[in-house]
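A quick aside before the break. I want you to see a complete sequence-to-structure record at least once, exactly as it would be stored in a machine-readable document. Don't worry about memorizing anything.
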Amino acid sequence: MNDDINRALDVLSRQPVPQALARIDATVLERIAELGPRLREIPTRYAAGMAVAALAMGIVGGALPGRATAPEPALYPLTSAHLTPSSLLSE
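That is the input. The structure line, written in tokens, reads:
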């Protein structure tokens, strides 16, 4: 499977970059530059209110209990007690 992925990535790396993808960084930076002056027009009270609201949401979200999840299966076989080396030697 890794060989298939490596071959696909090799083929993909030889392809030319699409123009829209090659220009995406410049487009994002242009849009940020356009928004800069408008963001300075936001009243300080409003910006402070947004910061307090975001902080409150983070505190409330962190305080809420999460749901219990099942443990992830381990990638190595020695996780269960009956497969530990000491128990295998005593059988």
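Two observations worth writing down. The chain has a mean pLDDT of 80. Residues 8-61 form one domain. We'll return to this after the break.
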